[in-house]
Amino acid sequence: MFKKISGSTEGLKQVAETRWQDFKSDLSESNRWIRFGLMGIAVYLLIAVSVGVYWSFEPDLMDLREKALAEVGGEEDRLVTGVATTASLISVVDTLLHKPGGYLSNDIAPPGVWLDNIPNWEYGVVIQVRDLAKAMREAFSRSQSQSTEDKDLALAEPQFNFDNRSWLLPPTEKEYREGMKYLRSYLLRLTDEEQQNAQFYTRADNINYWLGTVETRLGSLSQRLSASVGQRRLNTDLDGTPGAHQSTRSPKDQEIKTGFFEIDDVFYEARGSAWALTHFLKAIEMDFADVLEKKNARVSLQQIIRELEGTQQTVYSPMILNGSGFGMLANHSLVMANYISRAHAAIIDLRDLLSRG
């Protein structure tokens, strides 16, 4: 009987040993696949981060004359009035869609979904595109307030006002490409001598109309950038308007401060807005050359362009710093606000020049 028990014990030991070896083998196999999985994730993250860094580089300023020539097939005689402005709008939208990484504001997958700076840069560009498309539809292409709006520009403007973050049904890129298609159709008719139903009027009141919108945009950006350090402001909403009222009461003295997590958003929105506006103003300088010379306003416009070009200098810091005004650390928002404020003030002076007889 003892021999039988002993034999049974030996058999159980062998079975247990076999099962233990099988378990160790399975565990080793599982660990190997886990290691492979973790290595794959690490490689993917490294690639995603590298691609994200590459996608975060902002486009350089473009040669507008070269872009305008490209839009008219390289024929100098087709560079008629309005081509520079229309071509600049097309080129800015085209760059927005085809820069490294493409259009990122509506991305829902890595690395685009992780990126924050470029989508805000894109939003700044989109705002300026919308404003110019509106001005072209309502002013530049019409001889007077009761004239008929251009059919292509009437279709192009709504396309650029589509939701800038839509990724499906339809994606934003599709709507913006449709807008570019209508702009190119307008440009084709504009340069065709046999068609007189597309015009571009370079009057002082037209450029003043658009600059009024630009002035308010830059004024808002300047205030938001300056509020990075926080400051107490007196309420001047109704100053200089006797008898004026507002819907609800506002405090006479309040502290205005841009939130910590919004500082870099506002900074890059301002960068994008200034990048697009620089191209549009250069195009205006080309198309409205005679008007600017007559009003002795060309130098004023060039100074605005120079201030905006200053906003496009390379940012060497890995993050947008929010140091106090006179503290030890830099405040990139205040530096940007300096350029934007000077451009804003110069636009006010330019509009005054253009409005004079």
- Strand count: 2
Strand-residue proportion = under 5%
- How many DSSP helices? 11
Compressed to H and E, one letter per element, the order equals HHHHHHHEEHHHH
Question: What structural class do the secondary elements suggest?
Answer: mainly alpha
Low-confidence stretches: 1-6
Large-scale geometry: extended
Query: From the alpha-carbon coordinates, what is the Rg to the nearest angstrom?
Result: 30 Å
Q: How many separate domains?
A: 2
What's the arrangement of strands in the largest beta sheet? 1-2
Helical content, roughly? Answer: 55-70%
| Through-space gap between termini | 125 Å
Average pLDDT taken over every residue:
88
| Biggest pleated-sheet summary | 2 strands, antiparallel
Give a verbal description of the structure.
The structure is a single chain. The protein has two domains: 12-55; 62-233 and 254-355, no CATH class. Strands 1-2 form a two-stranded antiparallel sheet. Helix content is 62%, strand content 2%. With 357 residues, it is mainly alpha-helical. α2 crosses α3, α3 (83-98) packs antiparallel against α6 (172-190) and α7 packs antiparallel against α11. It is extended, with a radius of gyration of 30 Å.
